[in-house]
Amino acid sequence: MAAERCLELTDEMRQALEEMRALYERNQADVSEAKSGRTDLIFLIRFRHCCLLRNQRCLLAYLYDRLLRIRALRWEYGSVLPNTIQFHMSSEEVEWFNQYKKSLATYMRSVGGEEGLDLTQDIKPPKSLYIEVRCLRDHGEFEIDDGTTILLKKNSQHFLPRWKCEQLIRQGVLEHVLS
Q: To the nearest whole number, what is the mean pLDDT of the chain?
């Protein structure tokens, strides 16, 4: 359903661009005639020009909204997007996502000392440094800062540092157990 909707929007964008090209070509022809002395075409030329500007604003608003949503995906899912989401993106959108991801990583490395500062952690201020989590699917080994390795198996529960598991919670690997 979402893939079909994405294709429909692409078709709608193509249709709007075709309409804009046709309006522009008709305007160019009428401008030539208006220069020859047909002043009755000026209103029609202005009307078509307003239609062109409106379509342009609508297309730009749609594209800007889509970029904002793609940017939000970086904060929600991290630097690697699930295939189900990436499937619905154009190659240009994937390229923009990758450039945004690199720019954000460069900025995070430039602040916060030697290790940098991970701005994607602690989206909401933590109430405690450690939280109890339940593993929703098999994930494999997970290493925390002190070198301890934990095996994340489906339905296993662990008491872990919040900042180490917040990304896995957003990815749907872990869930926060509220006591």
A: 86
